[in-house]
Amino acid sequence: MAQDFEFERIAQDGRARLGVLRTPRGEIQTPAFMPVGTAATVKAMLPGSVRETGADILLGNTYHLMLRPGAERIERLGGLHGFMNWDRPILTDSGGFQVMSLAQLRKLDEQGVRFKSHIDGSDWLLTPESSMEIQRQLGSDIVMAFDECTPHPADETTAEESMRLSMRWAQRSRDAFGDRPGYALFGIQQGSLYQDLRGESAAELRKIGFDGYAIGGLAVGEGQEAMFDVLDYAPDMLPEDKPRYLMGVGKPDDLVGAVQRGVDMFDCVLPTRSGRTGQAFTRRGVVNLKNARHANDPRPLDPDCACPACQGYSRAYLHHVFKSQEIISAMLLTWHNLHYYQELMAGMRAAIASGTLDEFVAAFHAQRAEGDLEPV
Amino acid sequence: MAQDFEFERIAQDGRARLGVLRTPRGEIQTPAFMPVGTAATVKAMLPGSVRETGADILLGNTYHLMLRPGAERIERLGGLHGFMNWDRPILTDSGGFQVMSLAQLRKLDEQGVRFKSHIDGSDWLLTPESSMEIQRQLGSDIVMAFDECTPHPADETTAEESMRLSMRWAQRSRDAFGDRPGYALFGIQQGSLYQDLRGESAAELRKIGFDGYAIGGLAVGEGQEAMFDVLDYAPDMLPEDKPRYLMGVGKPDDLVGAVQRGVDMFDCVLPTRSGRTGQAFTRRGVVNLKNARHANDPRPLDPDCACPACQGYSRAYLHHVFKSQEIISAMLLTWHNLHYYQELMAGMRAAIASGTLDEFVAAFHAQRAEGDLEPV
């Protein structure tokens, strides 16, 4: 573990783990959900509000930030924390995944990925070494190794070649990261849906040695069942005493199933993106505020929720401001969704602490099965 | 004055008045600036934040609300205050001005204005009587009489005919409003730039009797000098013991000049609209955050401002999020602009109280003349 970083496992319930990741910028209670602050902002939220929902850590996207406003600029301005007014931990991805999904004319070889910016068409090269340097410039607390997120579906030969490239890049990331007290480096397991490849990848990463381990290459279209199949074995291949981070996941029931399978950290754009498209996550399932059935409904989105959207407004209002394309719609629904996600994580942490996660999960599914509120 | 409404004049400095308008929903310190909450939201702000900037009262737009979500719906849901989560006073305009500037195929005659909705093309008729009814359904605390905002420029005959129509509509508004304890009705002076017409209009309104008096038909393209020429005489034509409201004004120096001329209330979309287009109002003048000169500037927008945008962020950040079209840009700049406007009003109120408005105004202009911050 990097100096000043400590992962304490407090309790275990089945394979689920309760822990705390101590960092120089504050503690992260795990299992943890990290809201995504792509371009130095969690969209439609002020940082103080994000913290109020219970978030201990944010995720920043290296790809977006390197292109705009630029990592050197952020470094000159004192780093990402001060720039975006968030003084708690930040994890940055390596840029690899975003390059492959967003950049133009990308070309991957042993060295790294060449691409053109989707913003202005400028030429860039991202390598394990430059990714480490950019994440250092940003001031990221938890740096992710540079990898290739193996596309889905992939036959075993393709998955193997891709995973082995990522492992060579993992070693180069480790070498380039060097010794940075106060900062942590996480490796990323690949191997697609193949158990033997996941095992080989985990062994390689353990050999190199990281401060935490991510499970990559999931939530890329394989579906929940296939993802859970991998999670039935993949987390346990990773060191027990280090945090395990499932990248890009997910829907509420994905989080619940993954926590049951031993995952400690998550990130996903779903609660924030859905907040901008009129979708609310509640304990009774997803509510689409754009639906006309809400137009005259005086009831709150969720009568049991303590967030500002549920405490101050009716479904009728949330429907109205969504239809009118008012910014407050994104503000309120994003706040609600992040509040719900953090409450779900806090609920799972409390259940693990008391050894009642199975009951918690049963109640979680039962309440969703009841469906949304009865008609007025 | 309507029962439960009381306007107390506390101090006078030259023609400027310090007062308090007491309403069943709370006090309004005057001179007051009312943020505009067109469609049941002050765009990009939560109501609690609007209140934090110092706003005592909001303005709602009858035209927008009648079309969407509909005044009957808002009434069924318990009124505009609960709907938009603002429990302090709300003033609504009559819809007349917005119909003439936004609606399609509008046709004005003695009865009122026929038009098609700009949202769905549906047919509507707005009259003094229906405007009073819609504003009642909304639950507005301060109802505006239905008038025609005389277009600019207007020759004297046109201005006279338009003003006299508005005065007949003012009487019909008064009759239709009836006796509503706890709610106030304001009349609106017209007469374009013609002093004799302004005088005739004021006399008509005084004869009818209102709880407050607005100065209408200004800020429609005549320029500040012509507006101030009218304000040199128009406010004093209105009853001394009632609040005077200058509709749709204005820029910071408009507010200052109008307060000096005896105006008590203002509304304008400028601080909120500008907040969405990267324009910030500061004591040193307007700052355009889209300007590339801010890209590397670590300094706050205004080092002496206590708003969240100035306390938490650099100009470089505000430039970045504006360029990246992030919602937080509108959130922060709107908050800043409303904070600045309310601080300006509070400064003028304190200066009137201490009899130092001339000094305050001199300092206001001197600081603006210094211009924006020196280059880094």
Can you describe this structure?
In chain A, strands 4-14-13-12-11-10-6-5 form an eight-stranded parallel beta sheet. Chain A contains 15 helices and 16 strands. The longest helix of chain A is centred in the C-terminal third of the chain and has 27 residues. Chain A has two domains: 262 residues, Queuine tRNA-ribosyltransferase-like (TIM Barrel, Alpha-Beta Barrel), CATH 3.20.20.105; 96 residues, no CATH class. The mean pLDDT of chain A is 96. In chain A, 41% of the residues lie in helices and 19% in strands. With 376 residues, chain A is of the alpha/beta class. At the A-B interface, α13 and α14 of A face α13 and α14 of B.
In short:
The structure is a homodimer of 376-residue chains. Chain A is α/β, with parallel strands linked by helices and 376 residues long.
What is the secondary structure topology, with strand pairs?
The structure is a homodimer of 376-residue chains.
Chain A: E1 6-13, E2 16-23, E3 26-30, E4 32-34, H1 47-52, E5 58-60, H2 62-67, H3 71-76, H4 80-84, E6 90-92, H5 96-102, E7 104-108, E8 113-116, E9 123-126, H6 128-138, E10 142-144, H7 156-177, E11 184-189, H8 195-208, E12 212-215, H9 224-231, E13 244-246, H10 252-260, E14 265-267, H11 270-275, E15 279-282, E16 285-288, H12 308-312, H13 315-323, H14 327-353, H15 357-370
Parallel strand pairs in A: 4-14, 5-6, 6-10, 10-11, 11-12, 12-13, 13-14
Antiparallel strand pairs in A: 1-2, 2-3, 7-8, 8-9, 15-16
Helix pairs in contact in A: 6-7, 7-8, 10-14, 13-14, 14-15
